[in-house]
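Title: Comparing notes on inverse folding

I've been comparing how different people in this forum approach sequence design from structure. To keep things fair, I'm posting one structure and asking everyone to reply with a full sequence. Here's the target:
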């Protein structure tokens, strides 16, 4: 009797277990199939999105290429169909390196020979300056199918105002042309307070306007120029009822800073820029590809080019000339020891305009731009030492405008002020 009861209980428990197992299996099968259906749907949607995105991107690139290839003066050696086209994105540029290192690496990684990569980088730097090479920039490359390591056309977007530059292989070098596309400029008035992200770029100017410290939270207005590509440029500022305006002559100029409506520079510094007017920075402080050896090498200063040979070179601060000499590498050079412990070096001069032992004032002419010594064209190499160690001159000097705009520059500035004032709604 006891046995029967026990057996019945066991049987019942077996049935319950079997029932529970079946229910669970059925649930699991349903769940898996629902999951598979969902997964399939998601994958299809994802594939379709990807395909759409890829085809839109391909269409965009093709469209860009057609525009590039129509630039006047460009004649391709063969029909575009016999060319392979590729796009390369400039990767992150390391803080201690010049951008030429990144572009040369990126080009070489895409199968372009080291020799051609260096030539392409040097042509961009010669034509537009080293700051024209930026992280995220898209470079277009066209090569003949038979020779992919040597591109015949290289395109890249120079700046946010839609300037498309184009290098075409001619003989043994790349020749630079550019096409400027029309972009509608939009001006808006920004009203905010010091500390807003937009205020960061103009903080030195705000500080100068506030005679020391621009306080967090103080309201200001800015006239912002948008060029349709997401890049905003502040062209006028109203702070505590005082208005200042930006001046612009060309892509890079020591004078491209803010001035009062009378043309007086807002930021006054004891350091003066060593050049006057437009220039191109062709090499920055830090590791770069040496234009002579094509190897990575530390560059102990900044190279400025683009101004005519013979342009005046100014000392950056008051001091005493400790060297005015010539040697094989530096060419004609001048060294000035300043009272705050800095020493400045001006190399490759056409001629030295000052004798050793002379006391000089900031902004005094000490020589003329030239190409003496180890140099491949007229440029000024500016070096600055502090405690016997090379410093990045950009961090010390910044860009300093003339204390006062005058002549043709003042006239151009007055026209800009009129235009900006009319657009600035306060
Ligand atoms: Zn140099």
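Reply #1:
Here's my take.
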């Amino acid at each position: 009797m006891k046995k029967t009861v026990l057996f019945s209980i066991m049987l019942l428990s077996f049935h319950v277990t079997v029932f529970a197992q079946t229910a669970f299996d059925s649930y699991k099968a349903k769940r898996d199939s629902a999951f598979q259906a969902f997964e399939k749907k998601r994958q299809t949607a994802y594939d379709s999105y990807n395909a759409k995105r890829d085809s839109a991107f391909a269409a965009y690139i093709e469209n860009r290429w057609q525009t590039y290839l129509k630039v006047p003066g460009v004649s391709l050696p063969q029909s575009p169909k016999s060319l392979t086209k590729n796009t390369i994105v400039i990767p992150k540029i390391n803080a201690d390196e010049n951008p030429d290192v990144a572009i040369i690496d990126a080009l070489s990684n895409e199968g372009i020979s080291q020799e051609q990569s260096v030539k392409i980088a040097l042509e961009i730097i010669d034509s537009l300056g080293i700051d024209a090479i930026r992280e995220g920039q898209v470079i277009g490359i066209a090569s003949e199918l038979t020779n992919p390591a040597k591109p015949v056309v290289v395109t890249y977007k120079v700046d946010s105002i839609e300037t498309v530059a184009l290098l075409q292989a001619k003989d043994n070098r790349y020749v630079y042309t550019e096409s400027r596309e029309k972009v509608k400029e939009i001006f808006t008035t920004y009203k905010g307070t010091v500390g807003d992200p937009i205020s960061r770029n103009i903080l030195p100017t705000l500080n100068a306007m506030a005679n020391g410290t621009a306080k967090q939270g103080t309201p200001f207005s800015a006239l912002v120029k948008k060029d349709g590509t997401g890049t905003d440029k502040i062209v006028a500022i109203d702070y505590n009822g005082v208005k200042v305006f930006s001046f612009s002559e060309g892509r890079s100029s020591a004078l491209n800073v803010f001035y009062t409506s009378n043309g007086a520079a807002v930021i006054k510094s004891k350091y003066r820029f060593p050049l006057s007017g437009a220039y191109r920075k062709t090499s920055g402080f830090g590791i770069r590809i040496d234009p002579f050896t094509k190897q990575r090498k530390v560059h102990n200063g900044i190279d400025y080019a683009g101004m005519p040979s013979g342009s005046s070179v100014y000392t950056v601060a008051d001091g005493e000339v400790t060297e005015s000499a010539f040697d094989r590498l530096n060419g004609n050079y001048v060294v000035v020891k300043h009272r705050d412990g800095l020493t400045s070096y001006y190399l490759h001069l056409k001629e030295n305009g000052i004798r050793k032992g002379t006391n000089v004032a900031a902004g005094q002419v000490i020589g003329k731009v030239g190409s003496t010594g180890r140099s491949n064209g007229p440029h000024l190499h500016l070096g600055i030492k502090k405690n016997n160690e090379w410093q990045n001159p950009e961090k010390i000097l910044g860009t300093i405008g003339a204390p006062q705009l005058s002549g043709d520059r003042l006239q151009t500035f007055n026209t800009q002020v009129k235009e900006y004032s009319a657009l600035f709604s306060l």
